[in-house]
Amino acid sequence: MESIKIKKITAVWIITVLVLFIVSIVLGILMRLNQGEIIEQSPITFYSNMTTHGLTMIGIWFVAGMAAVNYLMQRYVKTSYTANVIAYVLTVIGVLIFWTTTFVGKFHAGWTFLYPLPFKVMWATWATPLFLVSLTVFGLGWLIWSISLMTQLLKKYSIAQVFAWQHFRKNPKVETPPFILITMITLIGIITCLFAAVILIALFFAEYFSNGNFLNDALLMKNLTYFFGHTIANEMLYLGLAVIYELFSEVSGRPKWRTTWYVALAWNLTLIFILTAFFHHLYMDFAQPEGFQIIGQLASYLASLPAAGVTVFSVFIAVYRTEIKWSLTNLLFFIGVAGWVIGGLGAVIDATITNNVLLHNTLWVPAHFHTYNAMGNVLFSLAFFYWFTNQFTKNIEDGKFTKLTLAILLIGGIGFLLAFYIGGADSIPRRYSNYPTDFTAAAPLATMGAIFATIYLTAILIFFFKIYKGCLKILFSPS
Amino acid sequence: MQQQMILLVFLILAGITTVVFTYVYASSKKAGQEKQGMSNPLRKRFWFLLILFVVLGIFASVTIPKSPYFLFADETPKKIVHVSAMQFAFILSEKAIDPKSPSGEPIELPANELVEFRVTSLDVNHGFAIYDQSNTLITQTQAMPGYVNRLRHKFKEPGKYNILCLEFCGMAHHGMRSSFIVK
Question: May I ask the CATH class of domain B79-182?
Fold first, then answer.
């Protein structure tokens, strides 16, 4: 009975995520069309849409990863269905409140809501406190979910086992599955950054209700904002990686991946690097202590080592000169890892302080994070969605049609991203509703971005129609 | 132009990544039943990691000393420009700016001399990005309320330089700009 309920709630998550994803892509396309001077939006509409697009995307791909991890975790430990449902209900309520602030209240401080911008009201006065309420609702639901999953892991595994420390010795008696290790490392990162968000929101509310008697420190608030924002954006990728470690070999018809000493070491180190890499968002704040700036660059570099040396290499070892059963699921995983690596290259380039001076807040920034999200993390989740629906419905795969869909996805994705990268190298600022006339390439590049994003959207719609029918069947079947 | 070099390096690295992934995928498609796999994967993994570590180490040790915080740190600037950013304008002055009645004047700077911009904000976070005549971003810092960021730079070419806001600051963010002359 419990497994049926988890199956159904997972199907509900998938449909919700995909619907919100399609709406958010449309908002993104409208933004690029406005920048390309093809349509005309007021700056307020543009920036409200930008805020909606950013936070919705971060939210949905985070919960998509969580839903996938929750579903697969049932293989090892019993998880709480109630926590899962609470997270879903609070996520939906959070989205409704948040969308009210942006679509109705025209709140447009960006998804990073950098202090003190939310207090310089250029929108309905109720929108700022309501926006903070929506964040609180999200945070509450996600904290309950994360803590519940972590508690279940700790009921079965000791602290040393859940971090796979026994693998540092020869012939460990107990094996910690890679999925458990990565999930635990990721959950710690998630809970830590959600606590940072709690402090951040509390400080916002403290100033809001103080009638001017209490003012926050802008540098501290910015550090908290990016500790939360950067970390959650990275952890959602790691949720996707946990799913890959669990499913890639399985769907490929290969032996299950096992935890070794270097896998354990890599993921333990990742926890440290990921919690300190956020400093790279503050490189251009010269008032920040220089030691933090250097830690930012070193941690950003070091974070790539376990990722490339262990995860990517493991995928290569699994595939290289090995006959495996290719399906849409592992193809999406494989292409997603490539997208993640290429986005990571763009990120490491930008995380070099001397480059950041020339790239910070130019289009290079959306270029690299859209690469590892739209062509990385999204594909990880789509792979899970597809695998999940195929478990319960006989979704016969059409080889040619699959290849065509993937080709559309790749063409759309690459063209859309190239417009960003070229724009970044051309010093074009990000987050401009309209480009000054001296950036002659900016509008044509934006139009190019919109066209290719529409091609990408076409592929996503095809996936949506493949997946949602299966999800509805799961939802309305008695068992 | 450094940005074009960065793009080129990125495209080469992205190209290499694509080729490697395609090659690995193709090798799987061609593989027979005998399951050849990768020989000595642990050794290959070790060398791959070591090379990556050394390359990144070299890169970090070369680039970090050139970070803007350390550039011209031992020199005395010939000219100091105070900058106060506010929604949606920049105020530049050679004199300290009174936040209660901020006012500035047109700025002219000497070429090939060290200039220090003392950048702050009177309201929200802003960016202070300097663009040259070819509209290329040459340096930047942030303007943060309550803090002063000191940006040092030597302008090689005389001419008009534009200042753009690169930190989203509200509905007229894209129109927030100023300029100065280098002679």
Answer: mainly beta
